[in-house]
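Page 37, continued from 36.
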């Protein structure tokens, strides 16, 4: 690592930023840094992805991101390439935003991160600030530095800058972050990252500088805390059903306590996505390697796995034999406003239904294409939410897309063979559903209506 403590980009020279890995995170980071005037190169090995992006065709659905990409690309601040080496050679600051999928034992697979580190060491042509943006276990920045250092002839400065954006609201989260966490070891890196993030924190939200291991740990602790809240509420919801309580009332009752707060207290069909499941696993794994068992988190994971079977269980309770039944599913993505299907609860439900011999017909406003890519034609895909209901024995709601919130209940009832709705997101009023003649089961609201 560089002994240098001063890194001065001349005022006349814009800071060239290279973001390596153009997935959800890399693309949002690149587009948002370009939006504030920086020249940004996004590099990825995926030729099809980069070819598409050059034509403003986005590989993911993320509200508002297409405008950012198009505007900044047309104004020449944002470029896309598969030539990672060239992108590194012209950079002053490199963000590493490649994937860190779970390894077989649950730990984070650092192959991509360390492959990029090697590339950086070989191809850097200037003193460089290297930022790990990917979610990586404590000690990874040090491994990146060691790998870069084996090849580098110029000084460099390491930073850890975990990303807290939420898919579906990524642009807003990046442009107006609650806080920016930056792990640094020297003043030069601190100054560089402070400058880059200045435009995003003008309303006074903090850039929290800390040591690198603490920054790395902060990201895992944040996701683990959020996953814990979800699993906790799912278990409370399951108990509410047994004792005749309504989890919505309980949620409001505890969420208004300033010490608890209202966010992330909604029960559901189990958390999914690319982050919570893998980050909880990775943290549990790190802890067990260190001989510090994280018992709470082990249970969080177990509770979530069990929760993913609840919708199937409820359908079985209401319909009896599922073989030969036709089940409509509304919502496939792991949450609304994204087409991300990683670890989605819908995939568990679909698998169970197919194994039980049921037919599945699904609708999702944006994720059907991605579902088809993953599981093909094992299920039917409906053109509209109502088309999915035609001749179905029941409707299961998995994702709380806005368009499902105020449906035409008469049309639902008229289309279904029997008026059975299993709602994994508590979208509807239980009394209203009963008065409309539905057999309605939701999560944690006193069982059936
Ligand atoms: N998705 C989220 O909501 C989110 C939020 C915060 C943090 N993170 C973290 O950010 C990281 C990236 O996540 P993501 O969802 O953007 O992943 P992703 O899978 O969508 O994208 C990763 C990209 O990296 C590319 N890549 C892999 N190896 C490469 C290499 N050697 N050189 C160049 N490109 C390479 C892949 O082709 C892919 O396009 C992960 O560590 C993740 O945990 C994700």
């Amino acid at each position: 690592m560089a002994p240098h403590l001063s890194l001065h980009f001349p005022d006349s020279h814009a800071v060239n930023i290279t973001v390596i890995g153009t997935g959800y995170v890399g693309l949002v980071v690149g587009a948002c840094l370009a939006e504030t005037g920086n020249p940004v190169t996004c590099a990825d090995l995926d030729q099809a992805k980069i070819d598409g992006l050059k034509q403003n065709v986005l590989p993911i659905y993320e509200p508002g991101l297409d405008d950012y990409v198009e505007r900044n690309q047309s104004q020449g601040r944002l470029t896309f390439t598969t030539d990672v080496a060239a992108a590194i050679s012209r950079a002053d600051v490199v963000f590493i935003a490649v994937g860190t999928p779970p390894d077989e034992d649950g730990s984070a697979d650092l192959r991509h991160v360390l492959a990029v580190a090697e590339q950086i060491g070989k191809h850097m042509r200037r003193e460089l600030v290297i930022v790990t943006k990917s979610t990586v276990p404590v000690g990874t920045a040090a491994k990146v530095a060691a790998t870069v250092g084996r090849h580098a002839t110029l000084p460099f400065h390491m930073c850890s800058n975990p990303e807290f954006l939420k898919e579906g609201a990524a642009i807003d989260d990046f442009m107006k972050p609650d806080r920016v966490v930056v792990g640094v070891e020297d003043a030069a890196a601190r100054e560089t990252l402070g400058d880059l993030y200045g435009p995003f924190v003008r309303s006074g939200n903090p850039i929290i500088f800390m040591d690198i291991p603490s920054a790395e740990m902060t990201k895992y602790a944040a996701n683990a805390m959020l996953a814990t809240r979800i699993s906790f509420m799912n278990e409370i919801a399951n108990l509410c059903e047994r004792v005749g309580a309504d989890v919505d009332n309980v949620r409001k009752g505890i969420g208004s306590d300033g010490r608890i707060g209202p966010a992330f207290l909604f029960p559901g069909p189990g958390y999914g996505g690319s982050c919570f499941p893998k980050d909880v696993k990775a943290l549990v794994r790190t802890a067990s390697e260190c001989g510090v068992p994280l018992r709470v988190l082990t249970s969080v994971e177990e509770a979530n796995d069990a929760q993913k079977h609840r919708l199937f269980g409820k359908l079985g309770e209401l319909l009896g034999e599922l073989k030969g039944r036709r089940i409509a599913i509304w919502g496939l993505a792991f949450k609304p406003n994204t087409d991300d299907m990683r670890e989605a609860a819908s995939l568990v439900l679909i698998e169970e239904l197919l194994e039980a011999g049921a037919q599945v017909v699904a609708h999702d406003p944006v994720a059907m294409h991605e579902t088809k890519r993953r599981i093909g034609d094992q299920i039917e895909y409906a053109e509209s939410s109502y088309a999915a209901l035609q001749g179905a024995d029941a409707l299961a709601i998995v994702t709380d897309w806005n368009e499902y919130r105020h449906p035409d209940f008469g049309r639902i009832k008229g289309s279904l063979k029997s008026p059975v709705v299993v709602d994994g997101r508590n979208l509807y009023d239980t009394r209203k559903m009963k008065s409309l003649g539905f057999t309605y089961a939701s999560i944690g609201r006193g069982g059936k209506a």
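The CA atoms of residues 181 and 208 lie 5 Å apart. Flag for discussion at group meeting. The pocket of nicotinamide-adenine-dinucleotide is lined by residues 20-26, 43-46, 49, 84, 97-100, 112, 115-116, 134-135, 163, 165, 167, 274-275 (CB under 6 Å).
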